[in-house]
Amino acid sequence: MTTARTPVDPAGDSGYADHPPRMGFFTDTTVCIGCKACEVACKEWNAVPEDGLDLTGMSYDNTVGLGADTWRHVAFIEQRKPIGRQDPGLHHDQDVLTMAEHGTATQPPEAGMTPTTPGAGDDFRWLMASDVCKHCTHAACLDVCPTGSLFRTEFGTVVVQEDICNGCGYCIPACPYGVIDQRKDDGRAWKCTLCYDRLGDGLEPACAKACPTDSIQFGPLDELRERAGRRVEQLHEAGVPEARLYGADPDDGVGGDGAFFLLLDEPEVYGFPPDPVVTTRDLPAMWRHVASAAATLAAGAVAAFLGARKGR
Amino acid sequence: MKGQDAEHGSLDSRPAREAMTGVHTGRKRKGEQPVVPDTEFTSYYGKPVLNGPVWKSPDVPGYLFLGGVAGASSVLGAGAHATGRNRLAVAAKTGAFGAVTVSLGALIHDLGRPARFLNMLRVFKPTSPMNMGSWLLTAYGPCAGAAALSAVTGRLPRIGALATAGAALTGPAVAAYTAALVSDTAVPAWHDGHRELPYVFTGSAAVGAGGLGLLAAPDREAGPARNLALFGTVLELAAFRRMERRLGMVAEPYRAGKPGGMVRAGEALAVAGVAGATLGRRSRVARALSGAGLLAASALSKWGIFDAGKVSAEDPKYTIVPQRERLRERERGGDGWPAGNGAR
């Protein structure tokens, strides 16, 4: 048992005198192959219920986003952008999008493009990213929870106690990332626990265990941040200047994420907020304005009586 | 999203692929400053960034309305008590107790697990406005109840007076804290309005309580209720204007669509109610009509604000554009992170 070395120590701040290092995820989206093994492993291990089988038309993403019954979500983004020096795995002489547009029923003479027509080249890339609860350093869901159901674990993660949660729903709009949600037939709020039960037994979370490419890496947050920094440098040297980390900065609006990402485009492209801020940062100001507004109401009422002559 | 279509003409001819995201938006990089703030933005298939509020209607907007009416009515009731306006006092105190009772019912009904509502009181947690509100209602509710019971029955006048004072002291907080309740979320229209919403809420509460007083009070006791409604209308309108000016595009849901319509109708009704109560002060019918109008005004404004918040959470524009603008501002100031470079 060692204490976390980082200056920001959410577990220590929450009262754990002696605790293991802060654990987290580093999701390197550059090596994600979109297999969704993480989604499946998460559902299996945590017994998360099925939440509809829909075809959304959003590339290969039929999960849509995180929620009560989706604790890992793989995003798929199709872009007309060169992919750097990586092999996109496409036939360079074909434009699959144009082919798809014409459909399978188009006769070759009418087709704008056939498998033998030379295409525009490799101006196409697929971004895939496995999203998860960020286990923020300053977690709004935890701050606003009125029952104390949400709590900080000794690993610095944020977990819902389902035997306490009364389904008030406050954590849901408080989350700047849209992670936690209410399970409709159950009434309570659910989200990723970073496999708290597995961590206690020295196991890595189910999603990281199942990830075949190590796109999802689990470990002490300090180590992950170091490794991620090296990976970004490596990618920049390899000619992928757009590689950047998201959620790794302890000075961002949520004090840094326990689960952070290496992205190849702006965060909002992946459905992330570009500059999330924990809502409770402004709570002291809110309370001040509430106190002042309450005093204003009381003063207004006194004035209402002073301004009214007796018998009017 | 429109901007992308214009730039990539080929997309126009493929409606099935409109969902394609992440296409370069032509956004200005560091050094190039847009002349007008551009609202072009990228999102993930137009999906919301946030999971919006799951609070139900009419439970929660109904509570925002009734809690406000209750809190402000308790102040009105205490004033009437102190100045010997007995019928106004009885009306305001019973109105406050009725409103807070219905409020509690609505709040418990809105829970996903209503049987566990007492878990609200298993901790004392100033970072959670909902927890603070639960404690506040725990203090306020019994006071409002005792004040009303004593006023109606005429029994235990000393305890009644003490309870009236207690309800009057906690009432304004009951009316105001709900602004922090909604502001302390990531919902753009609610969070960003956190400076002005408390004043909008207490103003709206005064409008509702004034309306309730006008409905019930006889001619010679109606003055304070009318004045309170006037005060509330001025406070609410002024705070709302200020908030809209400060919020910019995030205030759109407060002006557009159905929520915007409710807010506008509420403002118009409040002004009409105050005018009606002032011009028709000698007419029982005019007073009652104005009172009902003022109550409706308070309800409409709370409902509109509630629904506008939901709209602002559902459209990724209101989440992404202001944050992107903030980042750009930081880059210009030099204390931000350069775009596309390392730690973000």
TrEMBL record, chain A:
[4Fe-4S] cluster 3 binds at residues 133, 136, 141, 175. [4Fe-4S] cluster 1 binds at residues 32, 35, 38, 211. [4Fe-4S] cluster 2 binds at residues 42, 192, 195, 207. It comes from the Bacteria. The keyword Chloroplast does not apply. InterPro entries: 4Fe4S_Fe-S-bd (IPR017896), 4Fe4S_Fe_S_CS (IPR017900), FDH_Electron_Transfer_Unit (IPR051555), Formate_DH_Fe-S_su (IPR014603). GO terms for cellular component: cell envelope. Keywords: 4Fe-4S, Iron, Iron-sulfur, Membrane, Metal-binding, Repeat, Transmembrane, Transmembrane helix. One of its GO terms (molecular function) is 4 iron, 4 sulfur cluster binding. Residues 1-20 are annotated as: Disordered. Its cofactor is [4Fe-4S] cluster. Gene3D superfamilies: 3.30.70.20. Residues 23-53, 124-155, 156-185 form the 4Fe-4S ferredoxin-type domain. CDD domains: FDH-O_like (cd10560). This is Formate dehydrogenase iron-sulfur subunit. The lineage of its organism: Bacteria, Bacillati, Actinomycetota, Actinomycetes, Pseudonocardiales.
TrEMBL record, chain B:
GO terms for cellular component: plasma membrane. Pfam families: NrfD. It is found in: Cell membrane. Residues 1-17, 322-334 have a biased composition (Basic and acidic residues). This is Polysulfide reductase NrfD. It comes from the Bacteria. Residues 1-35, 322-344 are annotated as: Disordered. Residues 335-344 have a biased composition (Gly residues). Keywords: Cell membrane, Membrane, Transmembrane, Transmembrane helix. InterPro entries: Electron_transfer_protein, NrfD-like. It is a multi-pass membrane protein. The chain crosses the membrane at residues 63-82, 94-112, 132-152, 159-179, 199-217. The keyword Cell membrane applies. Its main location: membrane. Belongs to the NrfD family.
